[in-house]
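## Example record

The block below lists the input lines for one assembly entry, exactly as stored, with component labels intact.
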Amino acid sequence: MSVADDLAAIRATTTLRAGDELACVRIDGAGAHELLDRVSPRQLFVRSGQMLHTLFLDDAAKPVADVYLCCDDDAYHVVAEGMRAASVLAYLADHAHGLSVELVDLSLSHAFLCLDGPYAWELLAEISSPDVIGLPYLGFFHDPRFTCFRGGKTGEYGYDLLVAREQLAAERARILDLGRRFELREIGQEAHALAMLESAFFDVRRAPRPGLTPVELQLQWRLNAGRDYPGSAAITARRASPRGRTVLAAAASELVVDAAIELDGSVVGTVLVSGQSHTRGDWLALALLEPGLAHAGLHGFTCGGIALRTISSPAINNRSLYVDPQRHSWATRESNAFPPLVRPDWS
Amino acid sequence: MAVITGIGAVSSLGHGAARIWSAMAEGRDGLAPIRRFDASELGVEFAGMVPDRNTPSRATPGPVTCAELAIEAARQAWQHAALDDVPPHRIALVFGSSLGDSEVAIHRIAEAVGEALGIAGPRLAVTTACASSANAIGLARDLLDLGIADIAIAGGADALTPLVLAGFRALGVLAAGKCAPFSEPAGTTLAEGAGFLVLEREPGRVPALAAVLGYGLSADAFHDTGPDPSGAGVTRALRSALVDAHVAPDEVDYVNAHGTGTLANDPAEWRAICSVFGARSEVLPVSSSKSFLGHAQGAAGVLEIIATLVAMEHGAIPPTQRYTSARLHSPHDPVGSSTARPARCNVAVSNSSGFGGANCAVVVAREPRVRSAQRRAISIASTGVADRRDTPLPPGVDPRGLDPATRFLVAAAAGALSAANVTLRADDRDRAGLVVGQAIASPESDAALHRTIARDGYRGLSASLFSRQVVNASAGTCARVLGLRGAHSTLGAGAATGLLALAYAAELLATRTEIDRVIAAGVDELTDAGGEAAEGAACALLVPGVHEIELAGWSVAGPGRLDLAITDATTMARIESGECAVDRTESARGAGFAPMTAVARAIARIRAGEIDRVVIARSGGASCDCAVVLCRGRKHHAS
Amino acid sequence: MRADLAETIAVREEILGKLRGVLIERMRLRRAPAEIDADAPLFGAGFALDSLDAVELIVALDTLFGVVLEDNGLLRQQMRTLNTVVDLVLAYRRGHVGRR
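Predicted structure tokens for the full assembly:
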């Protein structure tokens, strides 16, 4: 039961994990859309049943939560990682002046079970109904037993199921039972964090540092220019002169978090996040480099004496890119020839 | 219910429906190397061209047009049904096409077919991409039920042009060789053709070949070109068709699938069939006639129904040719064979789906069935109008990629819903319909498409802009954005287009209890704003029952018969036409938008107490004349 | 900075610049070039391009860079982010991937 085995399961089969890092808050009332419009760095173009992936920032534009804003007819769900529910409530309440809203902490009454893997869709179809085949990425729906959010931060099919706490044990047992035929494996947080790093998903619990904004973190797609939100002034200032930029890097052995990265004897950056990529057989790091050097495909860096090169994101050729519910299934997986999990290195 | 008394077809198998049967009997297909134009640049080899028109287009008789195919097939059907002695104003034409001919609005082709045959009843166009001709057959049945015509010629046509080929290729849906629905290799093979059925309400004038028992419509509301992979949209259309036909799933002997052969369509359609037919889907024969006809675009629906009918006539069912290995999620019995299979087939269902997510299923049978339809009263709950290109869209809607026609439609439809305080939730969406009257696809999208072709050639054509070429593209996007998944159609009828959409929407809601509300819309986008015509979208939200504003009557008549349309509409409304304010225009001004703004104005006047009742009538030029009656809700309305 | 590094950076920047132009003009992405991060996901997450946009990108690769692949499966693998597209263009130029 090693982390390497857990990670291999995420990449090839289906895994189940307790989503304890996720908080869920529901916003009811006529002012729900307006409230989120005030805090969302991203334009709130989201229809009922859709999720918008964005961030909550502090006034210095440092990411404090990785959030999905989910439109549910007249209400919204906020699914957040990086902030506890109480903090999410406080963050929202701070901006709710003059609005008719009710904020409900669903974390008290509900918990998340998370499914990830190239065949997670197929298990979900058994847990729920075959209609889930049509659920697009960043869509969500209500099943009688749970609310299912299709997100996933591993680069594989990923579904976060919000289950009432009193049903949690029973639902977990039912999923494990139905999952037997899919070789469903229960995993922990460590493998999940490695999978996020391999797929270059922003890890809000590990990557942020004081002074780093979405501009440095290559998260500008989570924002829209010309909007007013907490941290927007800092973003505008930072666009003109970023303090650096992140890029994914690979090395043959372990890299230490916060270690300096050097090029030709000068310090040019630091390691923000590091982990062992069992899928690739090397070590990965999210590196912060000087803006001029933050490019993929460069050699010659060192970190603690270890040779480091920068690579394009994501670092993995996810199996889920190729598994198509319309033509593949777990039962017939042996007869499918999928490309390897790692892209060729042409540098 | 309507009996079928005539059939006409031009297809990749030749001229006449008999050619379709002989190909099925002898195990031949109509897919051949393309010779009419040079398709080598596109890397496409095969298509279903009309065989004696597959020579280089510079030679005589020249390139094939949708209009000429349509006229030929319609003439065949006319002859077959011996219509020469029928009073022409009692014959209607309903014509479906995906792309028509370039620079020609599809309703003009309907008018041309009407002129060529001397059809003096209404000539209507249905434009829901590859579901068009199937929907046309259903709408024709409705016209007969309403007594608007005694006979209706219904079907469709589409020609295969380099642009269409390039567009489908850009979408990545063409097979490398000849298509193999439900099998390998995946992909479809395009084709062209035309087909018509002659439908009659009263059997007995001439021998009936078979009958159309009913039909159903729905929208996937999922993606602009890809179908809903769960098959939910097709499921709704199939169920709706069976209810309309008063046929239980167990009574169906055979399903003629849309079966394009693409990875996107086939599994989703199979899921829908399993959903509707349950355990029977283990043994129910489901085949794809596209395996020998090719994908005839807007004509696919009618040609495949014809293939089904001629097979039924010979005691057989059509095969799926080139079926070698079963693809995952495909029918258990695809009738895999090169020849038709002898089989008893009394009741069959034909399925068609199109870009923009429109689905249409039609139920046909050897024997007619009399059915009594319950009708509901219809009222208009609210209206919505949008006529500015910068009109704000509802919160949450991303304007990226929305052309003006789509923007008008979404804004107006959302406005109508919000004016009636309606928020569609979950199941509501399956029961909310949309009928759009729109004469042509967005000129802005069309111009943008042609710019990409001018710049990068057919190889570089924009796939997303190609998908906006079908007239129902705006309706499809509107359905997706607002979650309108019930009965869905797009129509054209010259200057009466908007009123026709209102009448059709009312008819659908009046006769189908699986929908709770329908938005009827008229949309126009102009190439240059200014001049007399206006652009925009105007919508009415229709609900069942008698409420503040009743939509009490509607009718369509042949061109030059506005008085008849008015009389019929007021009769339906149980009103003397003398007791009614009249808003009638006989000039061809506007098409979708203008008539519906007249409706909105009339509603405002009734609400303000200025008038109690009004008939709004518009002449659609050579297409049809249309009238609707609005009145203040009457308490004791007997339906 | 070392000359080879500077040259690699310049070449990548040039290709990135053209690709940003494609996203803005052909795919009508409403963002300034400086907002388009080289590692932002293109499909699904990130800019949420769809299958129709994918076709536009493939056409642009042909038109702008002459990239026409023997193996279309490579496209899915290399169209994750702008950086992976740049990797593809460079590999094509160096003959690492098959031409049709």
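Chain B has a mean pLDDT of 94. The first strand of chain B starts at residue 2 and ends at 11.
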